[in-house]
Amino acid sequence: MTGRVFWAELRDELRSIVRExxxxxxxxxxxxxxxxxxxxxxxxxxxxxxxxxxxxxATFGTYGVITVASLQPGVGVxxxxxxxxLRMKRVSAVPIWISLAAKATAALLYxxxxxxxxxxxxxxxxxxxxxxxxxxxxxxxLLLGSVPFTLFSVAVGFRFRPGAAIALLNAVLFPxxxxxxxxxxxxxxxxxxxxxxxxLPTYHLAQLGLAQxxxxxxxxxxxxxxxxxxxxxxxxATSYRHARL
Length: 245
Fold this sequence. Notes:
Elements: H1 2-19, H2 21-42, E1 46-47, E2 50-51, H3 52-83, H4 85-91, H5 96-125, H6 132-145, H7 147-159, H8 162-179, H9 191-197, H10 201-212, H11 219-242
Antiparallel strand pairs: 1-2
């Protein structure tokens, strides 16, 4: 019973991002479009010992994954709450956690799709120089590292209406992308920005992805993301307890 309900919810969530032009554009098309543009312009350059096209799989891949993880679950929760679906599920035999798990899983699957499209584009342009195993590690790391962003997104969805949730999540996402060096390599940014980046989870996720490609160590970035996950989980739990379903 639980499995059937989960798969039904998951199918609906996978369709929802395609049915919603805003989610499709911001969650899938824009990250991939940015990646293609920057790859065409700078893909053959060298960045931190890697070809820029290879490094972008980790940095723009981080941006693509957290975009889906940040927007899709939270906006979906806000919409369900606004329509009364969460209230109905709360009093029905369908646990809310199944709906949340389906939203998070759908975001992960779309994240995989974004990463695959970026990898294919880099390979077509001839800028991808990494072993298949290294690329698999990047995908796994970025997907696992998206968990705190999913939790934060859900927390926002429990507290704000859909329009406000979209505005708030985008207002957080874009500065994080710029300040973390996801679009422009961190070494090209001003020193003040580099100092700020070290406190941002997006920076640590991108650096952890780069570490899978042979650039840098991973431990400090793993610790930073674990702390972020704990904080995001606490925030999501608090938002759920105080949500008006």
